[in-house]
């Protein structure tokens, strides 16, 4: 018997295939007929996919298209083999500091975790593959937007309400831009209580022009455990970013960008 997850994946596959074939939004009725499902059930699943960014509704046609996160996951999947080469580096940070370490990519105004090494010494910090966190209140988000101009940040965050995050989080795009400017002078981004109270995230970007991608490597440390280790942790994260950049550069030839098919 197919589970709800199975049906959701089949629905997403059918939606993507039909949109790619026609270039037009796909209706609830068509999907229900193709998958032999009740229209109310299809409607609920489409709403769930839309909430996750995997589908989006077009108000004019009342049909659906695949959403932005669908392409972000596809882009990350194209580089799975290359990213696998970075796993020993991520694990190395976990073993060096006994704190959670993870790898992230930009997904619109969110940060998507693509590799994660949780720590048994810090079990309540949410490091898991597939997790999404806001750009404006996370160390990886700041690392991934370091090169953004003021206008680019304003455009990226135009729909953000800046509600939530930790007490150290920024509350508007200009504040993020200024904080990013200051972090360029540092070994790595140090986000103090920006995502969670009394947790410091150390993050650095690793760029690879050949793969047309930038990832962020990060470590999260409870503030009371940092002591005099801040400089050493930041340096190790920056070194890890350089190593990952080298690994990605030699991992694969230029890959195509993921994106919505042309109509």
TrEMBL record:
<dbReference type="InterPro" id="IPR029016">
    <property type="entry name" value="GAF-like_dom_sf"/>
</dbReference>
<keyword id="KW-0805">Transcription regulation</keyword>
<feature type="domain" description="IclR-ED">
    <location>
        <begin position="69"/>
        <end position="250"/>
    </location>
</feature>
<dbReference type="Pfam" id="PF01614">
    <property type="entry name" value="IclR_C"/>
</dbReference>
<dbReference type="InterPro" id="IPR050707">
    <property type="entry name" value="HTH_MetabolicPath_Reg"/>
</dbReference>
<protein>
    <submittedName>
        <fullName>IclR family transcriptional regulator</fullName>
    </submittedName>
</protein>
<dbReference type="InterPro" id="IPR005471">
    <property type="entry name" value="Tscrpt_reg_IclR_N"/>
</dbReference>
<dbReference type="InterPro" id="IPR014757">
    <property type="entry name" value="Tscrpt_reg_IclR_C"/>
</dbReference>
<dbReference type="GO" id="GO:0003677">
    <property type="term" value="F:DNA binding"/>
</dbReference>
<dbReference type="InterPro" id="IPR036388">
    <property type="entry name" value="WH-like_DNA-bd_sf"/>
</dbReference>
<dbReference type="Pfam" id="PF09339">
    <property type="entry name" value="HTH_IclR"/>
</dbReference>
<keyword id="KW-0238">DNA-binding</keyword>
<feature type="domain" description="HTH iclR-type">
    <location>
        <begin position="2"/>
        <end position="68"/>
    </location>
</feature>
<dbReference type="InterPro" id="IPR036390">
    <property type="entry name" value="WH_DNA-bd_sf"/>
</dbReference>
<dbReference type="GO" id="GO:0045892">
    <property type="term" value="P:negative regulation of DNA-templated transcription"/>
</dbReference>
<dbReference type="GO" id="GO:0003700">
    <property type="term" value="F:DNA-binding transcription factor activity"/>
</dbReference>
<keyword id="KW-0804">Transcription</keyword>
